Each structure stands twice: as structure tokens, then as C-alpha cells.
TrEMBL record:
Gene3D superfamilies recorded: Mur ligase, C-terminal domain, Mur-like, catalytic domain, MurE/MurF, N-terminal domain
Every Mur ligase C-terminal domain range: 353-480
PANTHER family, per the entry: MUR LIGASE FAMILY MEMBER, UDP-N-ACETYLMURAMOYL-L-ALANYL-D-GLUTAMATE--2,6-DIAMINOPIMELATE LIGASE MURE HOMOLOG, CHLOROPLASTIC
Species this protein is from: Coprococcus eutactus
Catalytic activity as recorded in UniProt: UDP-N-acetyl-alpha-D-muramoyl-L-alanyl-D-glutamate + meso-2,6-diaminopimelate + ATP = UDP-N-acetyl-alpha-D-muramoyl-L-alanyl-gamma-D-glutamyl-meso-2,6-diaminopimelate + ADP + phosphate + H(+)
NCBIfam families: murE (TIGR01085), PRK00139.1-4 (NF001126)
Binding-site list for UDP-N-acetyl-alpha-D-muramoyl-L-alanyl-D-glutamate: S30, N162, T163, T164, S190, R198
Descriptive protein name: UDP-N-acetylmuramoyl-L-alanyl-D-glutamate--2,6-diaminopimelate ligase
Required cofactor names: Mg(2+)
Protein family membership: Belongs to the MurCDEF family. MurE subfamily.
Compartmental location: Cytoplasm
Length: 517
């Protein structure tokens, strides 16, 4: 494809080279460049793509797209970018719009070849997205997935690095889905993804809103809650139909954004039957906790304004999962999936790292959950407390280089709701794990709970299992689906399921390990 065709519809300035040179691929990481690649330089949070122009040219880039205001001719004469003779260099104006257009031109607008469903909110994105995909799969529709756990292009499943990947990689995977026969794509859309323009050029058919709560506020995320909410809200200016949680206090702002964009609005909820006015609505009636052979779940009466009422059984416990289920049911009802298909899908629903049970005969009931903020942890602990364990033991840490406010908040919640809190390390990144644990300890003390600090997560899990018995519940919070630990920029293998297995094997072999705290 000619560069002029790839750049069609964008605003750019030719600084050097032939605009009709041939482009064979797109990349925004110089390590991915091959002969004929168009390399997009962008200034990211950790590095600046303009620093890697020499490397991209050496690897065979045919076109360099710069976004800086730096004067290219002067810089070239100074030798900053080495020998770029024969390489097309253009300056792209309005990167956020332009990068999406470049991807769509190159991959032929892949999101137009599928029905794309976006899911956003502070909590519930992964569960709702997985529920929708499960229903579509059960209905026999080939469906791709982009989310926190993995990217599924209908042939391969690739572990995710970010909830919403970078623009070029995202469009590449959408194109792969189309090539693999996908009819639908379900996509988690994070506020960071929206702020950094990662979904630029993606055309959404349905967007789902779960909830909004203070989170992801800090130096490395969003500056204020207002900014965080503004980016969440922006997704609903891009869709044809909005599915909105009527019970959430910010639902009116989300609905207004959707209505202003000309979208149809459909509501779901448990309590707020009047918030939707005369609009379409799907509500939950009576809600029941379920325990079948020590496997927990929840059931509810699903009532729609068209008069249809169906009892739904969800294979994951918690009232918050009634909301998640309703979001998925409402979305799939719009698509036209029969209710009996949705019932079958929900009854055996499981999501990796979301109240995921680890069944060990003779031991406490163990759950692994991704809860990594105070609201999520409170929801999970409240849900588990409803099943009346003899003791509720909560193990967690907090991520480094993220909102410091989470630490005290999560500590307070666990101190108040758990019988024992085991404070440990999560992903310390470039912070001291001991300092993070001290911040958590402050909150636990305010919550008034019993606690212990054990920095090694393996030793912490060993301790939690040693002090528990069959009638207890042990919650391992924070890691969820993750199978690594991030320490000073390096990710090392760490899967809590494997840790539990290792601990039990050692115990069965008579090996005694001391837990230092």
C-alpha cells in the first residue's frame, strides 16, 4: 500500500522523501520494524519514540511519522537522526485522530466488519465482557475478546499487558479477528485507554457502563476524579446504543453523553426502577444466595419492561455479579440472543481471577480475586461474609507506582470486615514493598482488625493456609488472573494457584517452612 493511501484523511506535512513509497506494516515500537514499515513516533509515559528513529531506519522503515514540534531539517543536519536519506518523513497533526485513521486505512476499517461491544466502568469490566462473550459463544457466534486477562482473536489467546492495548496493536488484532471469521468483538475499554487514544478509529455498536468510583487517581494515572470520569464518559460519544447501570449515581451524566451523540439508551439495575423514566430497562427482582456442594453462586429474577421475567442463576457469588449479569443480559437481549441461551451460559459462568474458587478437600474454601481497590475489596468481603464462614481471612498487598490512597482504604476495609488480614506484597514496581505494607497497616489499624505482615507472598499464603480450617474462607486478593510479580520493571513468574499447589505438596512431603513476619 502506498504511504499516501495509508495517510489518507489525516493532516500531515511532508518533511522529506516520497509520499508514494510502499508500506508493508505499521509499528510504534522500533523493535517491531521490518523492511517497508511505517514507524509512528509518539511520546509515551516512559519513553519517547522519536529517540528510536535511527533504530527504525536501520531495521528498514520506509516511513517515519513524527508527532513532535521539533524542526526535522535542523535536527537532521545536526545528525540527531542519522542517515534518513530515501526515507519518507512526515509530521502528523492531531495524533489521537490520525493514528486511528492510519490503522483503519491500512487494515481496511476492521471494526466495521464486526459488531463491536465496548465495556467500561471502575468495576466489573472483565466479568461483564467475559459474560457477553460466553453468551455469544453459546449462541454459536464467533466472537473475539480484548480485555484485562487476554486477547482472543478467535484462534489464539494471548495474555494481556494492558486492559486496552495500544492503537496499532489493537487494530492489528481486530484485523486478525476479521480474518478469522469473527462476527462480534467484546472489548474492555479503560479510562487510560481512552485518555491515551488507544481506541482511536474503533467504531462501537454498543457501549456498556458498569459504575464509577474514585480510583486510578494519582501522579501516574488521572490527576483528579473529574478527569477520570470525563474520560469514562467520552466512550459514550462513540456508540450507537448505550447500556447503562441505572443505579449508579453518575448514570445521568453517562446517559446525557450518549443522548447528545444520538445513541439509544437502555438501562439495567436492581434498585432504581424509576431512573430510566420511559426508557427500556432490565431489572433484577428477588435475589438469592446459592450454595451447591460448597460451590457458591447467586440467583435473581430478571424482569424486563416488555413483561418477560426469567430466573437467572449465576455461577459466581455476590450482588455485584447480579449487576454484571444484568449488564450482559441487557446487552445480549439487544443483540437478540434467546433468554434460554443466556440462562445456560450464566449458570456455569466462571471468570479467571474473579472470585475464582480453589477447591482443596479438607481445607478452607479459598478464593482468588482481582480486587485491588477499597470498593472492590469491600464488595468481595461482604459477599463472602454472607456465607457465614467461621473466620474470614483476607490476604492482599497493593501495587507500587499507583494511587497511594488505595493502600489505607483497602487496609481499613479488610481490618473492618475480615477476622484476620495478612498484609503482603503485590506488584511493588519501583517502590519499597515494606513501605507499601506500612501504608496498608495504617488502614488496618483504623479498621480495628487483627493482622500480620509477611512480605513474601508465598510465605503469606502458606501462613494463611496454616491458620485456617475447613469452615473458614481465605481470600487471596489483588492478583486475580495475573501470573507474575512486577519488581523494578521485571516480571517474574508468580501464579497463586501454583503457589497453593507447591505449599500442599511440601506439606504432604513433610517439609516444614518457617513464615517470617
Amino acid at each position: 500500500m502506498r504511504a499516501s493511501d495509508v495517510l489518507k484523511g489525516t493532516v500531515y506535512e511532508i518533511l522529506a522523501g516520497d509520499i508514494d513509497c510502499q508500506i508493508t506494516d505499521l509499528a510504534d515500537d522500533s523493535r517491531d520494524v521490518t523492511q517497508g514499515t511505517l514507524f509512528v513516533c509518539r511520546r509515551g509515559a516512559r519513553t519517547d519514540g522519536h529517540r528510536y528513529i535511527d533504530d527504525a531506519v536501520a531495521r528498514g522503515a520506509a516511513c517515519i511519522v513524527v508527532t513532535d514540534d521539533i524542526g526535522i531539517p535542523a535536527e537532521r543536519s545536526a545528525g540527531r537522526w542519522g542517515d534518513t536519506d530515501g526515507v519518507l518523513i512526515v509530521r502528523l497533526y492531531d495524533y489521537r485522530y490520525g493514528i486511528g485513521m492510519i490503522c483503519n486505512n491500512f487494515w481496511n476499517f476492521p471494526s466495521r466488519s464486526m459488531k463491536v461491544i465496548g465495556v467500561t466502568g471502575t468495576k466489573g469490566k472483565t466479568t461483564v465482557a467475559c459474560m457477553i462473550k460466553s453468551m455469544l459463544d453459546r449462541w454459536g457466534r464467533r466472537t473475539g475478546l480484548v480485555g484485562t486477562i487476554e486477547i482472543d482473536d478467535c484462534i489464539r489467546k494471548i495474555p494481556s499487558v494492558n486492559t486496552t492495548p495500544g492503537t496499532i496493536y489493537l487494530h492489528r488484532k481486530l484485523a486478525d479477528m476479521v480474518a478469522n471469521g469473527a462476527e462480534y468483538c467484546v472489548m474492555e475499554v479503560s479510562s487510560q485507554g481512552l485518555m491515551h487514544g488507544r481506541v482511536s478509529g474503533v467504531e462501537f455498536d454498543i457501549c456498556v457502563y458498569t459504575n464509577l468510583a474514585p480510583d486510578h487517581i494519582g501522579r501516574n494515572e488521572h490527576r483528579t476524579f473529574a478527569e477520570y470520569g470525563r474520560w469514562k464518559r467520552s466512550l459514550f460519544s462513540k456508540c450507537k446504543t448505550a447500556v447503562i447501570n441505572a443505579d449508579d449515581m453518575y448514570s445521568g451524566c453517562i446517559a446525557a453523553e450518549a443522548v447528545n451523540a444520538g445513541a439509544e439508551v437502555v438501562y439495567y439495575g436492581v434498585r432504581n426502577h424509576t431512573a430510566a423514566g420511559d426508557g427500556n430497562v432490565c431489572m433484577a427482582g428477588a435475589i438469592h444466595r446459592l450454595i451447591l456442594h460448597r460451590v457458591m453462586g447467586i440467583g435473581y429474577e430478571c424482569e424486563r419492561t416488555d413483561g418477560e421475567s426469567t430466573y437467572m442463576t449465576v455461577g459466581i457469588p455476590g450482588e455485584f455479579n447480579v449487576y454484571n449479569s444484568l449488564a450482559a443480559v441487557t446487552t445480549c437481549g439487544i443483540i437478540g440472543i434467546p433468554m434460554e441461551v443466556m440462562q445456560d451460559s450464566q449458570s456455569d459462568m466462571k471468570v479467571r481471577g474473579r472470585l475464582e474458587p480453589v477447591e482443596i478437600p479438607g481445607y478452607a474454601r479459598i478464593f482468588i480475586d482481582y480486587a485491588h481497590n477499597a470498593v472492590s475489596l469491600e464488595n468481595v468481603l461482604t459477599t463472602l461474609r454472607q456465607y457465614r464462614p467461621k473466620r474470614l481471612i483476607c490476604l492482599f498487598g497493593c501495587g507500587g507506582n499507583r494511587s497511594a490512597g488505595r493502600r489505607k482504604g483497602m487496609g481499613f476495609v479488610s481490618g473492618r470486615l475480615a477476622d484476620m488480614t495478612v498484609i503482603t506484597s503485590d506488584n511493588p514496581r519501583f517502590e519499597s514493598p515494606e513501605a507499601i505494607m506500612t501504608d496498608i497497616e495504617t488502614g488496618v489499624l483504623e479498621g480495628g482488625g487483627e493482622y500480620v505482615k509477611i512480605c513474601s507472598r508465598l510465605d503469606a499464603i502458606r501462613y494463611a493456609l496454616e491458620i485456617s480450617d475447613r469452615d473458614d474462607i481465605v481470600l487471596l486478593a489483588g492478583k486475580g488472573h495475573e501470573t507474575y510479580q512486577d519488581i523494578e520493571g521485571r516480571r517474574t513468574q508468580m501464579d497463586e494457584r501454583e503457589m497453593i499447589r507447591q505449599i500442599l505438596e511440601e506439606k504432604n512431603a513433610g517439609i516444614v517452612r518457617r513464615c517470617d513476619n
